[in-house]
Design goal:
Blueprint (H helix, E strand, L loop, with lengths): L1 E6 L3 H4 L6 H16 L3 E7 L9 H5 L16 H7 L3 E5 L5 H12 L6 E7 L1 H15 L5 E9 L3 H13 L3 E2 L1
Parallel strand pairs: 1-2, 1-4, 2-3, 4-5, 5-6
Length: about 170
């Protein structure tokens, strides 16, 4: 089984509170990747409460975003349409321990996970966090990041995150 993880392709990261031109530029290609993918697709959503500014993350990044149920929290419409009924995991932090445990449990139960490919946002925060968690939970499963289908906070931090992942034996294509 091949798994495609679509990380945080949400309105707030694309065209609203924390949107960037680089994030907007990858939406159609990510939607096409989802439609063409031969395997299981799982999406994540960054998910915060209205009290976001009182959290540690909110104190370090004081921009309210991805509040549960808000328009900005939703998957970008082209991504949502491509994903259809794919599983969605809401995550309260950069990396999803729930996602890593879910896939590790499936592997422990005998399911063969041939590869896990990550695409999405932001390369330098949530993509790298999830890639590293997956590498820790499933060290023998190839973890792949498609660089052209990711975008970072800045092009420079995107490039640094890709280099860091390469050093941790995550395949960057």
């Amino acid at each position: 089984m091949h798994i495609l993880l679509v990380i945080d392709m949400q309105v707030d990261f694309i065209s609203a509170a924390l949107g960037t031109p680089e994030a907007e530029a990858i939406v159609d290609a990510v939607a096409e990747k989802i439609r063409a993918f031969d395997g299981e697709v799982i999406c994540t959503r960054d998910t915060h409460s209205p009290e976001y500014l009182q959290t540690q993350e909110g104190k370090n990044l004081p921009v309210v975003h991805c509040v549960l149920g808000s328009d900005g929290w939703q998957l970008e419409p082209r991504i949502a349409a491509a994903a259809g009924s794919a599983k969605i995991i809401d995550k309260p932090s950069f990396g999803s321990v729930e996602l890593a445990k879910l896939l590790a449990d499936r592997a422990s139960a005998g399911e063969t996970i041939e590869s896990i490919t990550l695409v999405g946002l932001c390369t330098d925060i949530c993509v790298i966090s999830n890639a590293m968690l997956l590498k820790a939970f499933l060290p023998e499963v190839p973890i792949i990041v498609e660089s052209a289908l990711c975008a970072g906070v800045t092009p420079e931090s995107h490039a640094r995150a890709l280099e860091a992942m390469k050093m941790c034996q995550i395949t960057v294509v």
